[in-house]
Write a structure and sequence with these properties.
alpha/beta; 8 helices; two-stranded parallel ribbon; five-stranded mixed sheet
Amino acid sequence: MNRDVVVRQSAAVLLPRLGIDAAPLLETHVSDVLAQRGAELLHGMAAETWLGGSAFNAARVAALLNRDRSLDLAFFGIAGTVDGGSPHLSALTDWGVDTSGVENVSLPPATCLAMVEPAGRTLLTASGANVGVLDWLDRNQTSLVEAIARCDLLHVTSFLDPAAPGPIPLILEQARMRNPALRISLDPRISWLAAGGEGFDWPLH
């Protein structure tokens, strides 16, 4: 789950001001410290802040299509903290999504600084709370298997950590042993497709 700070400015102009060595029109991983400093700078330039992240966005769309609450929706993951609150967790709860599988931590959400211009977008992304995903997967393996096995459909999104695919197939394999009818969709994004990603071949089998 991300916090997207979006400004319509040229990356070539802003990157030197941010003090970040990154290529325009691409996505670059930055530290949480740089992301927070950048967020403060962009907010002074009339930037807009949006709650995002592909999994969070998928949950939002599902909730909008489920206004009659005929489907039981659930989210599994880590929610970060902003100004003492957890906006992602609060939004999911308001939408009627079960958040018992969400862990709230004190770190900020993954932050994405987005500089939008006619040629495209430059994205500077910090891991934030998602830095703890491997530990979270390990600590919650049993409960995740049990919860996922009760689902009809599961959407899996990627994390910046290239090692994150490692434990996920083990959890899904155990869940599908309990529920062979479970269907899984996958949004790998570049973080799992790029060279160095571990274990990405599992969705192909």
